[in-house]
Amino acid sequence: MTDATLDAAIAARVRDSFARQNLMATFGATLAGIAPGRVVIEAPVRDLARQQHGFGHAGLTFALGDTAAGYAALTLMPPGAEVLTVEMKINLIAPAAGDRLIATGRVVKAGRRLTVVTAEVEAEAGGARRTIALLQGTMLPVEP
User: Fold this and answer.
1) Cα torsion for 88, 133, 17, 109, to the nearest 10°?
2) Taking the C-alpha atoms of 90, 44, 22 and 9 in order, what is their torsion angle to the nearest 10 degrees?
3) Which burial class, exposed, middle or buried, applies to 78 when counting CB atoms under 10 A from its CB (0-12, 13-18, 19+)?
4) How confident is the model at residue 144 (pLDDT cuts 50, 70, 90)?
5) Structure pTM?
6) Among candidates 56, 14, 7, 50, which has minimal Cα distance to 31?
C-alpha cells in the first residue's frame, strides 16, 4: 500500500505525528501504508509485549488497532487538526499467535465533529495471517 493517492502534506502530517509516538517506537511499530481513510501499522511481537502464555498481549493488539484507526481518521480531517480517541471497543477473537501484528484502520463515516472508525488486527506466523481482533470506535478532531 502506498500513499500515492493521498495529498503529500497529509501523508507527511501522519508520518510526523507517528514519529512522535513513543509507545509505537517501543513496540517497534512502523507505518506500512497510508491512503485516504486507511492506515496500516505493523509491529513485531517482541518479548516485552508478550503475555504469560507467549502470545502477543492484548495491550499491544489494542494499541496498534487504536493507532491505525486514529491515523486513518486523521487522513480525512482538516489541515491543522489533530485526533483523539473518544471511545474504542475491541473484540479479541483469537490469540495473537505469531511473530508480527498488522493493524488496518479504516474510516466508516467521517463527520464534521466525530469520525467513526474500525480496525482489524491480524497476526502473522510463517507467512500466514489470521484475524485476531476487531475494533470499532469514534475519533474527535482537536486543535493542537
Assistant:
1) -60
2) -90
3) exposed
4) confident
5) 0.94
6) 14
Residue 89 in grid coordinates: 471497543
The CB-side HSE value for 10 (13 A sphere, CA atoms) comes to 21
Residue type, 96: A
Contact yes or no for 140/76 (Cβ under 8 A): no
Query: What's the grid cell of residue 94?
Result: 483469537
Question: Three-state DSSP class for 71?
Answer: helix
33's grid cell: 501504508
SS3 25: helix
56 with 26: CB under 8 angstroms?
no
| Segment 16-68, tens digit of pLDDT | 999 999 999 999 999 999 999 999 999 999 999 999 999 999 999 999 999 99
User: How many C-beta atoms lie closer than 10 Å to residue 95's C-beta?
Assistant: 16
**Residue 136 to residue 112: CA distance in whole angstroms:** 18
- Placement of cell 471497543 in the chain: 89
Joined together, the cell numbers standing for residue 58 give 492484548
